Amino acid sequence: MCGACGRTVTADEVLGPVSTLRHRLIAAQTINALCHGLPGIPSVQAAGDTWLVRGVTGAVIQCTTVTDVWLTILNDPAATLHRDRLLQRIRSRTVIETGVALNVVNAGLGLCSTLVLGKA
Questions:
Q1: What's the pLDDT score for residue 71?
Q2: Predicted model pTM
């Protein structure tokens, strides 16, 4: 997108120069699948040009990049309790994903690994 419509366009290093709604839906679905079953972790919803991260308390945070989505989830208090399990899930998912989903998983792996190692 060129920004000629007057909207702010944020470059997303994970999705690349052309980010479509389909890419954002795949990213949201991938992140939700990784977090499924971990109590209290926020869910992600694609919403136009952004994502909405919904916490269990009802808080909604709008994110413009995949990195922002991952940071919002990983810094949530519930996610800090499950960070090690989430890291294991992400590592196991890198072998089966391809395309956009693989880029999203790799972004999560890098951020989660940094946070887990930073905790130790």
A1: 94
A2: 0.85
